[in-house]
Write a structure and sequence with these properties.
The complex is a heterotrimer of chains A (259), B (223) and C (637). With 259 residues, chain A is of the alpha+beta class. Chain A has eight helices and seven strands. Chain A folds into two domains: 109 residues, Beta-grasp domain (Ubiquitin-like (UB roll), Roll); 124 residues, Alpha-helical ferredoxin (Fumarate Reductase Iron-sulfur Protein, Chain B, domain 2), CATH 1.10.1060.10. Chain C has 637 residues and is α+β, with helices and mostly antiparallel strands. Chain C has three domains: 311 residues, FAD/NAD(P)-binding domain (3-Layer(bba) Sandwich), CATH 3.50.50; 134 residues, Alpha-Beta Complex (Flavocytochrome C3, Chain A, domain 1); 126 residues, Fumarate reductase/succinate dehydrogenase flavoprotein-like, C-terminal domain (Methane Monooxygenase Hydroxylase, Chain G, domain 1, Up-down Bundle). Chain C starts with 14 loop residues before the first helix and ends in a 14-residue tail after the last strand. The chains are: A alpha+beta (259), B mainly alpha (223), C alpha+beta (637). Chain C: Its cofactor is FAD.
């Protein structure tokens, strides 16, 4: 089948970009979307033109590298599917396809469709961990965790950090990402001791990075390739409110102790 | 106090202010509508209710201060959030599709502006009696007649209907949204809250517009 | 070249304990005076970087991906083994050790493998403490499943994304150290060469992939955790970015490369759909727990699966290997699939596929149970093929998946180049000629969390390292070589793209150095590879320049290394005339077509020394000694 592609081309973060149109004339329905772009790039290279830069790696829907807004929807029209697993059978002969990078202030364009998502890493560095060093932790079965809690934590942990939630959000908010990360750890007993500080620090970092706010559009959960629910955002809000209330209670504690 | 301010400075803190002030608003508009609907019980009932409200004195002042503060905080937070949100998406998409957001959620800001204009007009219109196109004659003791005379102006009534549409939409998203923001939502309650919000929005719209329509079709007449 | 494996003396069970006692320690206050450069941020790299930083070392960590969380460890689906014996089904450290040695077809070191089995139990505890959401039973304890090559349930898993969950654990530990400023993280930064000063690994040269800047980094030890080289075949289940460059550069600087021909072909991948194919997608081996593998009995039978009656189906794994059946180890299952397809009994387009059928399990356990176990895998299969595996059997075919070979390391995970440590898939040490399912994650984390942190201290404490700065002439010289090579790649200005050459190389490797190898084929490959390489350096086109984000240039450098490395693989495969594990020489098989090992002549590790491009490398033997297991024919019948 044949497609008309409109692709965002931009040299780097400092220059302006624009949409450029290309014809894709040899598209097979069995191709993945990225393979369709591979074919286009091979043609561009042969013609001596600059191929389209885009992030990709595992091409099996788990590394979270691919990041394209296809016809106005991050990762394209198929729900619960990353761009690399989107196949061309989702399109019809003659379709026009608009391909743009994730757009958000904290995600500057590196080139064409590749953006810098280091802001998400910095949110993790602010608190997305359990402070346990490598050593001799208790036996893995020492703390029983109910299947329900474990499954719920897993639902949140399924986040692949692609940033589609940010791209989908009209406010460029990273609430779903942050909520998934906070909830994964805050739900588990191992994460309990640092629960409050974790949510406070991660939200603070999220704000500092310049992500927008949540106005509960729910576009993020529709775009999430791992179908993470905005219920986790409600949970993070709850955790933050509670943490802020408790922060007042605990103010000053720990300052008088010590030997 | 620094704790409160530090909370307010977070994005979620501002949203919580939106939610709490919104909740006050929801309570008020529901109560206000129930009070207004007494117009169908006749002029005497409505005027008596109005006189009762005025007789509460200091309590009324407190309520008015709370409401005014809520509105102001709601607006300040909304403006700040909107500015931040615009900043985080400086480059718009050439092509954008909405998948799950509702019309109501996407029009909160515009609906909010209409509601602000409406509130100003509404106070001038029925509380102070100095609004252009307002009821003639205006009698502070005869609320019933003020309402009927007021809505006999078709343009005013149309403006009220548009404003109530905005209110309904604002509530249809806002009531669910505020619970979500306050973290008072989970898998089990989500559907219930979504439906409750839609229900409240619809009832507010229908209940409130029934009055200008009843006046325009001549069901409610001056006494 | 001297290869001393430095396996501690003493009984197998005590080697690691005794060694930990014997190693020198670095004073806690002194650790911050030492810098360790960790290249790679997968399970091995991230766990090592985090653990070393926790100990107090200064750590610099590098990855070419945009975030350390995206390393390819993330793609592992099925699980991680550990000898916890939670199921009371007879597992033990010794059994895991034995299964791994046997699964590796007796081509791994006893000492290393025993240690791996010992620390496996700590890994699970460590990961749980980090918040890895392993699957749980209703009672709150962890669930286990069985996996290929084992008769006990010792595999821990987190839905179908165990690799991602374990990596998030290691990555979060790493990010914590980054936040504490103990680790400096360099993302989108590719190591292009290693710098030796006085014969010791003291630094690396990197390229910042965003702005093309070439940078020098100096340290007291270098750790390579850069994964495997499966992409030499172009089509593999590896991520597109996986490459041999870091390992190969180390090899060119004098590190020995061990057993490069040992590659694992994974039996359960989605078959190739067309010429545009850019990679192969793995379906977790765990599917074989409940799926039955079959092909039609008749060659050329092209009826739909449901129209083929039970009596005309050949459940060939169950037939040939009744005790392991569909759970036979990877190499055996893969080869069996190739055999039936070679007989013309393959299914699907091109006849390169076999059925993996869940209908019996769905009948037995119900659709919900199957969905619970494999739901996301089934969805993935449907997205890719457009077929619903609840209704029609999956089609699978083997694909290159993992490389057991890698840089040679001693018991301390240090290569023959002093100071150069190699972890995870990048080293050769633990899996012999074939890796068992769910053991890669185990090895990566064992190396990074529990082995390297001890052994690197021993090196640093005993090596008497003089301070070195990036102004040292060795840095300038290595940087100059790196820059020259990049310039050469950009200046060829020919007609063919990098992918074009990579595909051509991949085809040669798959045809002659793939699932079955023979003398003639390998010799053909050894003729073809230098030709492709020559053409590559004559007719390659890399558009643009090196001063910005240029993905073609990145690929070109990697493929240039694959084009040299492929030759090394073929030399190794040609030398090893026995069949063992993933290495099947058609000349060496039993009458019924099973692999025939030659213990008398090949019970050794082949470690190759670089002698120049196009020159045959020199082989050094590390003889493998088995004191605790008896070398038997590996039978899964």
């Amino acid at each position: 089948m044949k497609l008309k592609l409109h692709i965002w081309r931009q040299d780097n973060a400092k220059t302006a970009g624009k949409m450029v149109s290309y014809d894709a004339n040899h598209v097979s329905p069995d191709m993945s979307f990225l393979e369709m772009l591979d074919v286009l790039n091979q043609e561009l290279i042969t013609k001596g033109e600059d191929p389209v830069a885009f992030d990709h790696d595992c091409r099996e829907g788990i590394c979270g590298a691919c990041s394209m807004v296809i016809n106005g929807i991050p990762h394209g029209p198929q729900r619960a599917t990353t761009t690399c697993q989107l196949h061309m059978r989702s399109f019809k002969d003659g379709d026009e396809v608009y391909i743009e990078p994730w757009r958000a202030e904290p995600f500057p364009v590196i080139k064409d469709l590749a953006v810098d998502r280091a802001a998400l890493d910095r949110i993790i560095a602010a608190g997305g961990f359990i402070s346990v060093g490598t050593g001799s932790p208790p036996d893995g079965n020492a703390i029983p965790i109910s299947k329900e809690i474990s499954d719920l934590a897993m639902d949140a942990a399924a986040c692949i950090g692609c940033g589609a939630c940010v791209a989908a959000c009209p406010n460029g908010s990273a609430m779903l990402f942050t909520a998934a990360k906070v909830s994964h750890l805050n739900l588990l007993p191992q994460g309990e001791p640092e629960k409050d500080q974790r949510v406070i620090n991660m939200v603070a970092q999220m704000d500092a990075e310049g992500f927008g706010n949540c106005t509960n559009y729910a576009e993020c959960q529709a775009a999430c390739p791992k179908e993470i629910s905005i219920q986790f955002i409600a949970k993070m809000n709850r955790d933050l409110i509670r943490a802020k209330l408790r922060e007042g209670n605990n103010a000053g504690s720990g300052k008088t102790g010590g030997a | 106090m620094t704790g409160v301010l530090s909370f307010y400075r977070t994005s979620i803190g501002k949203k919580v202010v939106m939610a709490v002030t919104g909740l006050i608003g929801v309570g008020f508009v529901i109560g206000h509508m129930l009070g207004n609907l007494q117009i169908y019980l006749g002029a005497e009932a409505l005027n008596k209710y109005a006189a009762f409200l005025k007789s509460t004195g200091e309590l009324l002042v407190v309520v008015r201060v709370v409401l005014l503060t809520a509105v102001i905080l709601h607006i300040i937070a909304a403006v700040q959030l909107t500015i931040e949100n615009r900043k985080s998406r400086p480059q718009r998409y050439v092509k954008k599709q909405h998948v799950e957001s509702t019309f109501a959620s996407r029009t909160m800001r515009y609906g909010g502006i209409i509601l602000l204009l409406f509130i100003v007009y509404h106070i001038l219109h029925f509380t102070i009696g100095k609004a252009p196109g307002g009821p003639q004659p205006f009698d502070v003791h005869n609320v019933y007649n003020n309402v009927v005379y007021g809505f006999q102006n078709i343009w005013v009534s149309l403006f009220y209907i548009v404003a109530m549409l905005s209110l309904g939409l604002h509530m249809a998203h806002g009531v669910w949204s505020l619970f979500q923001t306050l973290g008072l939502n989970n898998r089990r309650f989500n559907r219930l809250l979504r439906n409750a919000a839609l229900g409240i929005g619809t009832l507010l719209f229908l209940g409130n517009i029934s009055i200008p329509i009843a006046v325009l079709v001549g069901f409610l007449k001056p006494i | 070249m001297q290869l001393n494996a430095k396996i501690p003396a003493g009984p197998l069970e005590d080697k690691w304990d005794q060694h930990r006692f014997n190693v020198k320690l670095v004073n806690p206050a002194n650790k911050r005076k030492y810098t360790v450069l960790v290249v790679g941020s997968g399970l091995a790299g991230a766990s090592a970087a985090a653990s070393l930083a926790e100990l107090g070392y200064n750590v610099k960590c590098f990855c070419f991906q945009d975030s350390p969380r995206r390393a390819h460890s993330i793609a592992a689906q099925g699980g991680i083994n550990a000898a916890k014996n939670y199921q009371n089904d007879g597992d033990s450290v010794r059994r895991l050790f034995y299964d791994t040695i046997k699964g590796g077809d007796y081509r791994a070191r006893e000492g290393n493998v025993y240690r791996l089995a010992q620390v496996s139990v700590n890994i699970i505890d460590q990961c749980v403490a980090q918040g890895v959401p392993f699957a749980r039973e209703y009672g709150g304890v962890m669930a286990n499943r069985s996996f290929g090559g084992a008769q006990v349930s010792r595999t821990f898993y987190a839905r179908g994304q165990t690799g991602q969950q374990l990596l998030i654990g290691a990555y979060s530990a790493l990010e914590r150290q980054i936040g504490l400023k103990k680790v400096a993280m360099y993302s989108r930064c590719e190591m292009l060469d290693i710098v030796l000063v006085d014969g010791k690994a003291r630094g690396i040269i990197t390229r910042d992939l965003i702005n093309g800047k070439i940078e020098r980094h100096a340290g007291d030890a270098v750790v390579l955790a850069t994964g495997g080289y499966g992409n030499v075949f172009y089509l593999s289940t590896n991520a597109k970015g996986c490459n041999v460059t870091a390992s190969y550069r180390a090899y060119k600087r004098g590190a020995a490369f061990a057993n490069p021909c040992f590659t694992q072909i994974h039996p359960t991948c989605i078959p190739v759909a067309g010429d545009h194919q850019s990679k192969l997608t793995l379906m977790s081996e765990s599917l074989r727990n409940d799926g039955r593998i079959w092909v039609p009995k008749k060659a050329g039978d092209n009826r739909a699966a449901k129209d083929i009656p039970e009596s005309e189906r050949d459940y060939y794994l169950e037939r040939k290997y009744p005790s392991f059946g569909n759970l036979s180890p990877r190499d055996i299952s893969s080869r069996a699939a190739k055999e039936v397809c070679d007989e013309g009994r393959g299914v699907g387009p091109g006849g390169l596929g076999v059925y993996l059928d869940f209908s019996d399990s769905i009948k037995r356990l119900g659709k919900n149970m199957i969905a619970e176990r494999y739901g996301n895998l089934f969805e993935m299969y449907e997205r890719i093929t457009g077929e619903n595996p609840y209704e029609v059997p999956m089609r699978i075919y083997p694909a290159v998946h993992y490389t057991m070979g890698g840089l040679w390391v001693d018991y301390n995970l240090m290569s023959n180049v002093e100071g150069l440590h190699v972890l995870g898939e990048a080293n050769f040490s633990d899996h012999g000629a074939n890796r068992l399912g769910a053991s890669a994650l185990m090895q990566g984390l064992a190396d990074g969390y529990f082995i390297l942190p001890y052994t690197i201290g021993d090196y640093i404490a005993s090596a008497k390292l003089a301070p070195v700065s990036t102004d040292h002439p060795a840095f300038a010289e290595t940087e100059r070589e790196v820059t020259t090579r990049l310039k050469q790649l950009l200046e060829i200005n020919g007609k063919r793209s990098v992918d074009d050459f990579h595909r051509e190389l991949g085809k040669v490797m798959w045809d002659y150095c793939g699932m079955a190898r023979n003398d003639a084929g390998l010799r053909t490959a050894l003729e073809r590879i230098p030709q492709i390489r020559e053409e590559f350096w004559r007719d390659l086109r890399v558009p643009g320049s090196g001063e910005y984000f240029n993905q073609e240039l990145e690929k070109a450098g990697r493929v240039a290394d694959f084009l040299e490395f492929a030759e090394l693989m073929c030399h190794d495969a040609l030398m090893r005339t026995e069949s063992c594990g993933g290495h099947f020489r058609t000349e060496s098989q039993t009458e019924d077509g099973e692999a025939k090992r030659d213990d008398e002549n090949f019970t050794f590790v082949a470690a190759w020394e670089y002698k120049g491009v196009g020159t045959k490398p020199t082989m050094h033997k590390e003889v493998l000694e088995f004191e605790n297991v008896h070398l038997s024919t590996r039978s899964y019948k």
